Amino acid sequence: MTGAVLSVRAVWRALRRTRSLSRPALVWGSGRPVTVGLRPEDLELAGDGPIPLKTELLERLGADTIVHGRLGDGTALIARAPGALALRLGETIRLAIAPGHIHLFDAESGTRL
User: Which domains are present in the chain?
Assistant: First the structure.
């Protein structure tokens, strides 16, 4: 699986803005680490979104544009956006997580929670 690993804290900050999950849904075990899985199509462009992404590569595919970029901490992230997106390399876009599309996994075993 390719993608970014975001902390539960970062995901919770993003979710608070969309109000899509309650905090207990993001807490698993007693402080045990979880891996948060996000699909590119489940990230939404949002002018005031909580996730800034600096673009590094744009794959213009007609109906869609696949945006490859990095978060502030250097973590790679991929998002799918509308094909008509007016964006240049190096620009920063802001993303939000589509409500209900977060996948949590046990960081040690990889088991879906």
Answer: 8-106 (2.40.50.140)
